[in-house]
TrEMBL record:
It comes from the Bacteria. PROSITE patterns: ACYL_COA_DH_1, ACYL_COA_DH_2. InterPro entries: Acyl-CoA_DH_CS, Acyl-CoA_Oxase/DH_mid-dom, Acyl-CoA_Oxase/DH_mid-dom_sf, AcylCo_DH-like_C, AcylCo_DH/oxidase_C, AcylCoA_DH/ox_N, AcylCoA_DH/ox_N_sf, AcylCoA_DH/oxidase_NM_dom_sf. This is Cyclohex-1-ene-1-carbonyl-CoA dehydrogenase. Belongs to the acyl-CoA dehydrogenase family. PANTHER family: ACYL-COA DEHYDROGENASE (PTHR43884), ISOVALERYL-COA DEHYDROGENASE, MITOCHONDRIAL-RELATED (PTHR43884:SF12). Residues 10-121 form the Acyl-CoA dehydrogenase/oxidase N-terminal domain. It holds the Pfam family Acyl-CoA_dh_1. It is an enzyme of class 1 (oxidoreductase).
Amino acid sequence: MQQKERFGLTEEEQMLRDMVRRLAKEKIAAGAEERDRVGEYPYDMLELMKENGLMGVDFPEKYDGMEAGLLAHCIVVEELAKVDASVALIPSCQELGSLPIILAGNHEQKEKYLKPLSTGETLAAFGLTEAKGGSDVAALRTRAVRKGDKYIINGTKTFITNGGVADTYSVYAITDPDLPSHKGASVFIMEKGMPGFTVGKKEHKLGIRCSDTRELIFEDVEVPVENRLGEEGEGFHIMMKTLDFSRPSVAAQALGIAAGAFEYATQYAKERETFGKPIIRHQAIAFKLADMAMKITAARQLLYKTCDLLQAHVGKDLSRVPAEIIRHSSMSKAFCSDTAMATTIEAVQVLGGYGYISEYPVERMMRDAKITQIYEGTNEIQRIVIASTL
Ligand code: COS
């Protein structure tokens, strides 16, 4: 039995957390403001992730991953997000884009695509959302028509993280429009450079500004049948399961943003003086910090419990994901991201005018926090999912 800390980390997980915390402090924090201002994909940070083995923490060992578990991945994402949520998105998006292959790929697909994804040699993207919406998955319209041993894919995907930098894409498309989408959709592994596959312009965003978000455009793209994940018609379920396993990673990113803003605001409140004492001694500020501390601690416990539940399900029959798992995944995503938003708004308030300028990190953290309430299912969708499992 491995020794556990009081909140449940094994020795290995604690060592990983401390290593990433050091890395974040020494090599990532200082450049965060500049990366946010420039808004270009941070290839130097990708190299740093690869050098430190952080791209495939939760990927199977058999396919060159570390297989340290979902909680270990979330710890990595949290520690990175404490200083830069965009850098945290590098391993987080790798996990999201690769999960359909991990969950539904066969041995050949994993050998070919998962191995280089595990090490970060290639980058992944998750192609689900379309311009008409991402919340109502059953209404998506990208079409795949089978012709012999190929599928011909037409359609457009929107708001795809890593859109312009990825090599391997998991793409959702309708294969039988006569069936309800829950039974008539499939997922395909697509590669950068396939004829007819182009990407649109880069989106300019409020936060996570150095991540690369684009449209994917498919015009008669020929995809070999062997690139289909699972059986034809399993696409909806593959994507739902992927989201069950990937939402904790967004929760971890949100938790990291919240914790980073809280730590900064607390330190500031101890040093900044008004009316003859540090502002942390004024009840108005002290109560804000107390509320942040409560929410962050609760959010972390919920996330860790969710990871444990999901981990216990790895390798089991995924055709029936238990309601408790689906519910916890959505609860941790919604709770951690609502915590990130509330905490960062208050952190800006604690810093007053300084909180509003880019020399101090909390305004960036407030902008970065917002997306965590929106992507991988809006928090309104999470509440629908939670309620549906009660
Ligand atoms: N995990 C596993 N299975 C799930 C599931 C989940 N989270 N959610 C639904 N399913 C299964 C259901 O069990 C049902 O299975 P059967 O066909 O065997 O009965 C099937 O999928 C259809 O479920 P449901 O009727 O609830 O489907 P809806 O079309 O009503 O979908 C939601 C509802 C909201 C759950 C779905 O559209 C969704 O998750 N939307 C958000 C998508 C998202 O996160 N987009 C962001 C893009 S990624 S950045």
